[in-house]
Amino acid sequence: MTIFHNQALENQHILITGATGGIGHETAIAAIEAGAKVTVTGRNEDKLAKLKESVQSPNNLHVFPADLTKEEDRQQLISHAIEAFGPITGLVNSAGIGGGDLVEKLSEEDMRTIMELNYFSLVAITQDVYRGMKEHGEGSIVNLSSLSGLRGTHGNSAYSASKFAVTGFTQAFAHEAIEHGVRVNAVCPGYVDTEMGREAIASKGERENRTYEEQLEVAKSGIPSNRLTSPREVANVILFLLSDSSFNVIGESMKISGGSVMR
């Protein structure tokens, strides 16, 4: 459901990473509906092509596949984005992966992979985009953290550590960036009805010897609203943080928990 005026993000150029995932995909569609020019990236070219086909105004969407762990890819992404739509005024760091296990079963490779994709590459692309925002004296950066970046849960240490890192980075960087007119915030959803969210539920179910359907019911029973969050609901919060309506919202970690985390 669209809740923003079709000119709410007019004259804005938003770069969205991880646009092949459910949240990034929906954020791209919502941003274009709100009048923005949008550049999207991800590693799955087929999913990026399908996104291009699904938006209302394909001329307002620029697609550039990239691996954000590679400096050359990041530089080319930003160069092509600026060439397509001009200076980047908004950045949505939606790229990331799930995974992990009990601490005793975690491999060093798995831990490094999760931190590399969820944290280090996020900081790296932020550094690259922030230089331009700082030069122009304005911008908004929204990082995808998680409720797992606010509290730990059983069997979730590697993913949780990566999202705690994102939350901490958001708060510390917000102090620096606002000195140059750039706002930095995070969104912290719980279970979202996406492929990644469903995989997380299935993985937890396997550890607890439950079917997916049984674990889904367990997950929903711990949420006062008794349902998962939709990707569009997360996208709507992201758009609010990108818009002028959140002009004095700085360094926040906005929970989307269905009431499961109230503090």
TrEMBL record:
The GO molecular function terms of this record are: oxidoreductase activity
Span of domain Ketoreductase: 12-195
Q: Which UniProt keywords apply?
A: Oxidoreductase
Q: Which GO terms describe its biological process?
A: bile acid metabolic process
Instruction: Write down the InterPro entries for this protein, in alphabetical order.
Output: KR_dom, NAD(P)-bd_dom_sf, Sc_DH/Rdtase_CS, SDR, SDR_fam
Q: Which family is this sequence assigned to?
A: Belongs to the short-chain dehydrogenases/reductases (SDR) family.
Indicate what this protein is called per its UniProt record.
Short-chain dehydrogenase
